Amino acid sequence: MIKADLHVHSCLSPCAQITMVPSVISQVVKEKQMDVISITDHNGCHNLNSFAKKIKNRLIPGVELTSFEEVHVLAYFSSIEQALSLCNFVRSFLPKVNYDPEIMGYQIVVDEQDQFQRLEEDFLGIALQLSLTDLIEIVHSYDGIPVYAHIERRFGVLYQLGIFPRNDQVKLVEARSREGWAQAVKSGFVVLSNSDAHTPDEIGCRFTRLKVEDSNPKELFNILSMPSRERILSVWD
Ligand SMILES: [Zn+2]
Ligand SMILES: [Zn+2]
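Above: query sequence and zinc ion SMILES. Below: predicted holo C-alpha coordinates.
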Protein backbone atom coordinates (compact mmCIF):
# COMPACT_ATOMS: atom_id res chain seq x y z
CA MET A 1 0.00 0.00 0.00
CA ILE A 2 1.44 3.35 -0.90
CA LYS A 3 0.50 6.87 0.23
CA ALA A 4 -0.11 9.45 -2.49
CA ASP A 5 -0.96 13.16 -2.21
CA LEU A 6 -1.98 13.92 -5.77
CA HIS A 7 -2.87 17.61 -5.44
CA VAL A 8 -0.02 19.92 -4.41
CA HIS A 9 0.62 23.46 -5.70
CA SER A 10 4.09 24.87 -6.31
CA CYS A 11 5.26 28.48 -6.27
CA LEU A 12 4.04 28.72 -9.88
CA SER A 13 0.45 28.96 -8.62
CA PRO A 14 -0.36 32.58 -7.74
CA CYS A 15 -2.36 31.45 -4.67
CA ALA A 16 0.43 29.22 -3.27
CA GLN A 17 3.14 30.30 -0.84
CA ILE A 18 6.43 31.21 -2.49
CA THR A 19 8.08 28.65 -0.18
CA MET A 20 6.54 25.83 -2.26
CA VAL A 21 9.88 25.15 -3.97
CA PRO A 22 11.53 21.79 -4.79
CA SER A 23 13.81 21.49 -1.72
CA VAL A 24 11.02 22.34 0.74
CA ILE A 25 8.37 20.12 -0.85
CA SER A 26 10.86 17.25 -1.22
CA GLN A 27 11.81 17.53 2.46
CA VAL A 28 8.17 17.57 3.66
CA VAL A 29 7.32 14.62 1.40
CA LYS A 30 10.09 12.63 3.12
CA GLU A 31 9.10 13.76 6.62
CA LYS A 32 5.43 12.91 6.06
CA GLN A 33 6.43 9.62 4.40
CA MET A 34 4.49 10.23 1.22
CA ASP A 35 5.48 7.69 -1.43
CA VAL A 36 4.32 9.83 -4.31
CA ILE A 37 2.90 13.30 -4.98
CA SER A 38 1.58 15.20 -7.95
CA ILE A 39 2.42 18.85 -8.58
CA THR A 40 -0.79 20.37 -9.94
CA ASP A 41 -0.43 24.09 -10.62
CA HIS A 42 -3.25 26.21 -11.99
CA ASN A 43 -3.30 26.09 -15.81
CA GLY A 44 0.50 25.72 -16.01
CA CYS A 45 3.24 23.06 -15.84
CA HIS A 46 6.55 24.88 -16.02
CA ASN A 47 7.90 23.71 -12.67
CA LEU A 48 7.37 20.01 -13.37
CA ASN A 49 10.85 19.33 -14.74
CA SER A 50 12.52 20.97 -11.73
CA PHE A 51 10.41 18.98 -9.28
CA ALA A 52 11.01 15.75 -11.20
CA LYS A 53 14.77 16.28 -10.89
CA LYS A 54 14.50 16.89 -7.15
CA ILE A 55 11.80 14.37 -6.24
CA LYS A 56 12.84 11.80 -8.85
CA ASN A 57 10.67 8.67 -8.62
CA ARG A 58 7.99 10.21 -6.48
CA LEU A 59 6.26 12.54 -8.93
CA ILE A 60 3.21 12.04 -11.13
CA PRO A 61 3.08 14.97 -13.60
CA GLY A 62 -0.13 16.95 -13.23
CA VAL A 63 -1.98 20.23 -13.65
CA GLU A 64 -5.20 21.79 -12.31
CA LEU A 65 -7.24 23.30 -15.12
CA THR A 66 -10.15 25.73 -14.77
CA SER A 67 -13.01 25.42 -17.24
CA PHE A 68 -15.13 28.29 -18.51
CA GLU A 69 -17.81 27.28 -15.95
CA GLU A 70 -15.15 27.81 -13.22
CA VAL A 71 -14.89 24.10 -12.51
CA HIS A 72 -11.47 22.83 -11.43
CA VAL A 73 -10.27 19.65 -13.15
CA LEU A 74 -7.07 17.86 -12.19
CA ALA A 75 -5.24 16.02 -14.93
CA TYR A 76 -2.46 13.43 -14.55
CA PHE A 77 0.00 12.37 -17.24
CA SER A 78 2.38 9.49 -17.85
CA SER A 79 5.17 11.89 -18.85
CA ILE A 80 6.18 15.50 -18.30
CA GLU A 81 6.35 15.95 -22.08
CA GLN A 82 2.63 15.15 -22.38
CA ALA A 83 1.79 17.53 -19.53
CA LEU A 84 3.87 20.33 -21.09
CA SER A 85 2.28 19.79 -24.51
CA LEU A 86 -1.19 20.10 -23.01
CA CYS A 87 -0.20 23.21 -21.04
CA ASN A 88 1.24 24.82 -24.17
CA PHE A 89 -1.96 24.05 -26.04
CA VAL A 90 -4.38 25.46 -23.44
CA ARG A 91 -2.27 28.59 -22.97
CA SER A 92 -3.90 30.19 -26.01
CA PHE A 93 -7.26 29.84 -24.22
CA LEU A 94 -6.13 31.92 -21.23
CA PRO A 95 -7.87 35.30 -21.35
CA LYS A 96 -5.44 38.21 -21.30
CA VAL A 97 -5.83 40.25 -18.13
CA ASN A 98 -3.74 42.91 -16.48
CA TYR A 99 -1.67 40.92 -14.05
CA ASP A 100 -0.04 42.56 -11.04
CA PRO A 101 1.94 39.98 -9.06
CA GLU A 102 2.03 42.25 -6.00
CA ILE A 103 -1.74 42.02 -5.74
CA MET A 104 -2.61 38.76 -7.47
CA GLY A 105 0.28 36.60 -6.29
CA TYR A 106 3.67 35.66 -7.67
CA GLN A 107 3.97 32.93 -10.31
CA ILE A 108 7.55 31.76 -9.98
CA VAL A 109 9.39 29.33 -12.25
CA VAL A 110 12.32 27.76 -10.38
CA ASP A 111 15.05 25.25 -11.15
CA GLU A 112 15.66 22.10 -9.10
CA GLN A 113 17.94 24.08 -6.73
CA ASP A 114 15.06 26.50 -5.97
CA GLN A 115 16.80 29.19 -8.01
CA PHE A 116 14.51 31.81 -9.48
CA GLN A 117 14.28 31.46 -13.27
CA ARG A 118 11.52 33.86 -14.25
CA LEU A 119 8.05 35.11 -13.41
CA GLU A 120 5.25 33.67 -15.49
CA GLU A 121 3.70 36.66 -17.25
CA ASP A 122 0.24 35.38 -18.18
CA PHE A 123 -2.06 35.19 -15.16
CA LEU A 124 -2.76 31.50 -14.54
CA GLY A 125 -5.40 31.80 -11.81
CA ILE A 126 -8.27 32.38 -14.20
CA ALA A 127 -10.80 30.32 -16.17
CA LEU A 128 -9.74 29.06 -19.59
CA GLN A 129 -12.00 29.89 -22.51
CA LEU A 130 -12.87 26.21 -22.82
CA SER A 131 -16.03 24.41 -21.71
CA LEU A 132 -15.80 21.59 -19.21
CA THR A 133 -16.70 19.08 -21.93
CA ASP A 134 -14.00 20.41 -24.28
CA LEU A 135 -11.43 20.51 -21.48
CA ILE A 136 -12.00 16.86 -20.60
CA GLU A 137 -11.73 15.85 -24.25
CA ILE A 138 -8.48 17.79 -24.56
CA VAL A 139 -7.04 16.06 -21.48
CA HIS A 140 -7.88 12.69 -23.03
CA SER A 141 -6.36 13.70 -26.36
CA TYR A 142 -3.04 14.18 -24.53
CA ASP A 143 -3.49 10.74 -22.88
CA GLY A 144 -4.17 12.42 -19.54
CA ILE A 145 -6.52 11.29 -16.78
CA PRO A 146 -9.13 13.93 -15.84
CA VAL A 147 -10.38 14.17 -12.25
CA TYR A 148 -13.07 16.51 -10.92
CA ALA A 149 -11.25 18.38 -8.13
CA HIS A 150 -12.71 19.10 -4.63
CA ILE A 151 -16.22 18.36 -5.94
CA GLU A 152 -18.25 19.82 -3.08
CA ARG A 153 -16.12 22.89 -2.43
CA ARG A 154 -15.96 26.21 -4.29
CA PHE A 155 -14.80 25.59 -7.90
CA GLY A 156 -15.76 21.93 -7.59
CA VAL A 157 -18.16 20.44 -10.11
CA LEU A 158 -20.99 19.82 -7.62
CA TYR A 159 -20.59 23.22 -6.02
CA GLN A 160 -20.55 25.07 -9.36
CA LEU A 161 -23.08 23.02 -11.38
CA GLY A 162 -25.12 21.23 -8.70
CA ILE A 163 -24.81 17.90 -10.52
CA PHE A 164 -22.24 15.59 -12.03
CA PRO A 165 -22.46 16.20 -15.80
CA ARG A 166 -23.22 13.12 -17.88
CA ASN A 167 -19.74 12.35 -19.04
CA ASP A 168 -18.47 8.82 -19.11
CA GLN A 169 -14.94 10.05 -19.73
CA VAL A 170 -14.42 11.02 -16.08
CA LYS A 171 -14.15 8.14 -13.62
CA LEU A 172 -12.25 9.75 -10.75
CA VAL A 173 -13.20 12.60 -8.45
CA GLU A 174 -11.57 14.24 -5.46
CA ALA A 175 -13.75 14.74 -2.38
CA ARG A 176 -13.17 16.94 0.67
CA SER A 177 -15.71 15.43 3.08
CA ARG A 178 -17.48 12.19 3.88
CA GLU A 179 -20.68 13.69 2.42
CA GLY A 180 -18.91 14.46 -0.85
CA TRP A 181 -17.37 11.00 -0.87
CA ALA A 182 -20.80 9.35 -0.33
CA GLN A 183 -22.37 11.34 -3.15
CA ALA A 184 -19.52 10.45 -5.52
CA VAL A 185 -19.60 6.75 -4.68
CA LYS A 186 -23.38 6.68 -5.20
CA SER A 187 -22.81 8.16 -8.65
CA GLY A 188 -20.27 5.44 -9.52
CA PHE A 189 -17.02 7.38 -9.16
CA VAL A 190 -13.77 6.24 -7.58
CA VAL A 191 -12.68 8.83 -5.01
CA LEU A 192 -9.30 10.40 -4.25
CA SER A 193 -8.54 12.37 -1.09
CA ASN A 194 -5.67 14.84 -1.43
CA SER A 195 -4.40 17.88 0.45
CA ASP A 196 -4.68 20.61 -2.23
CA ALA A 197 -1.66 22.01 -0.38
CA HIS A 198 -0.77 25.66 -0.95
CA THR A 199 1.67 25.78 1.99
CA PRO A 200 4.34 23.25 3.08
CA ASP A 201 2.53 22.25 6.29
CA GLU A 202 -0.57 21.24 4.33
CA ILE A 203 1.26 18.62 2.24
CA GLY A 204 0.04 15.12 3.12
CA CYS A 205 -2.68 16.34 5.51
CA ARG A 206 -4.90 14.19 3.29
CA PHE A 207 -3.75 11.40 1.03
CA THR A 208 -4.99 8.52 -1.06
CA ARG A 209 -3.86 4.92 -0.54
CA LEU A 210 -3.08 2.89 -3.62
CA LYS A 211 -2.88 -0.89 -3.47
CA VAL A 212 0.19 -1.62 -5.52
CA GLU A 213 3.52 -3.36 -4.98
CA ASP A 214 5.66 -0.95 -6.96
CA SER A 215 5.47 2.81 -6.38
CA ASN A 216 6.89 3.55 -9.84
CA PRO A 217 4.88 6.57 -11.13
CA LYS A 218 4.22 4.82 -14.47
CA GLU A 219 2.60 1.90 -12.64
CA LEU A 220 0.55 4.30 -10.51
CA PHE A 221 -0.57 6.14 -13.62
CA ASN A 222 -1.87 2.81 -14.99
CA ILE A 223 -3.87 2.23 -11.81
CA LEU A 224 -5.38 5.72 -12.03
CA SER A 225 -6.22 5.20 -15.70
CA MET A 226 -8.34 2.12 -14.90
CA PRO A 227 -9.65 3.11 -11.48
CA SER A 228 -11.24 0.60 -9.14
CA ARG A 229 -12.38 0.98 -5.54
CA GLU A 230 -10.42 -2.15 -4.67
CA ARG A 231 -7.10 -0.51 -5.48
CA ILE A 232 -7.73 3.21 -4.89
CA LEU A 233 -8.76 4.09 -1.35
CA SER A 234 -9.65 7.56 -0.06
CA VAL A 235 -9.54 8.38 3.66
CA TRP A 236 -13.23 7.37 3.84
CA ASP A 237 -12.83 3.96 2.12
ZN1 LIG B 1 -8.94 23.85 -7.13
ZN1 LIG C 1 -5.69 23.07 -6.14
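The CA atoms of residues 79 and 219 lie 12 Å apart.
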